[in-house]
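=== RUN LOG ===
request id: a7f3
mode: sequence -> structure
chains: 1
length: 351
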Amino acid sequence: MGNTSSTALASQRVRQALLALQVCATIIALVSAGLFVRAVVHGFGGGPGFDVDRTVFVSIQERLPGWSAGTVYRPEQTVQRIARLREALQAIPGVQEVADGLPPIGPSDRFVIKKLKAQERDYDVSVAQLRGSPEMLSVLGVPILRGRSLTAADSMAAPYPAVVTESLARRLWPDGDPLGQPLRAPVSRYGPFTVVGIARDFAFGSLTDPGEGAVITAQPNLNGMTSFFVVRTEQSSAVAASISRAIHAPSVTVATGRDVVSRDIGRQRLGAWFFTGFGLAALLLGVGGAFGLVAYLAESQRKEFGVRVVLGASMGHLGAGVSLPRSFLLQRVWRAACSRLLWCRGSSHRC
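=== RESULT ===
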């Protein structure tokens, strides 16, 4: 009799341990999936750094009259075309400001600097040289923290006035004032630079593998037949549709800031959806497994329940005195399983 009781007690403890293990595994799976999804939703902690909700990026490709294969446009022709397209974009309702420039995120032909020289020291870095009209940072919603922003006169100055991002300034001048300091890029066609302002950090290239900073100059992007613009709007989605209808050109590509970010982290978002489904499946399996195990415990004590019912125990007190993990949820599942067991046995309470 003693051996039978000890065996039953050991079996009950094993079942309780399995129940607790399944609940813990379900919680761990849910927390892991939630953390991964949260990381993707919040843009890997830092975010893009520019105003994605009010920014639209436009790429317009057109051929000027007299074009033929091998035609090389003169700079003044390209400048006139860019000015005409900017006026057309500025006239669209909902457009607040227009600047020349490439999107900071996504594939493009912008120049990436691999080496910089500051304070007579060479630094191996990976920074972007973003070229565009002086108001490009303002249109992107990137504030100037120190110094001044770029002006139209800076496009003709030598050395080139430049704005650097905050993290790059801290690395190149950890103990000094970056403003007014010379900056050289030995392998760059553009430069040397003079730092006139420090801007807030923003991501370039990719959110998953951002660079160490950016050097922004007021230089036009004279890129053949293709012109790139950054547009600041009141509502990016509505204005993006208006731009596609208003600009008549052989090729017009319009993308909101959200579109650019979504394309950049597309794989990560796919993984987030996968982990969301994995978390929901784990929750369903955990709930089903916990209820099944508790129901099995109730079934294994059928004879004991029969004795209690005969002695006058109600369904609400049927599970009293049974050793279970101290959890309100598990106790409710336990009582539901007991009640279901008696309901299936009928009013005669056959045990």
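=== NOTES ===
The mean pLDDT is 75.
The CA atoms of residues 131 and 296 lie 70 Å apart.
=== END ===
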